[in-house]
Amino acid sequence: xxxxxxxxxxxxxxxxxxxxxxxxxxxxxxxxxxxxxxxxxxxxxxxxxxxxxxxxxxxxxxxxxxxxxxxxxxxxxxxxxxxxxxxxxxxxxxxx
Length: 96
What we know:
Layout: H1 8-20, E1 47-50, H2 53-61, E2 72-75, H3 78-86, E3 92-95
Parallel strand pairs: 1-2, 2-3
């Protein structure tokens, strides 16, 4: 058995992919996200790590993504990098 934790929409996509390969799956969402509207500080001389898509969604929802348009960013995952670029953040230094 493998337990994979994902939000509901991502879990459904992953369940379809795994079951299409012939594996038996059980999908049950275990969590969801609540974004806080806390003020986020920014310093142009620092580097920022964006570990998930939810980091970007939180900054968009709190209307603070503009602070990171020219930030030095490390993205974890290609989807995160794509979301950053779509949000106007154009200095993604590296993606892993």
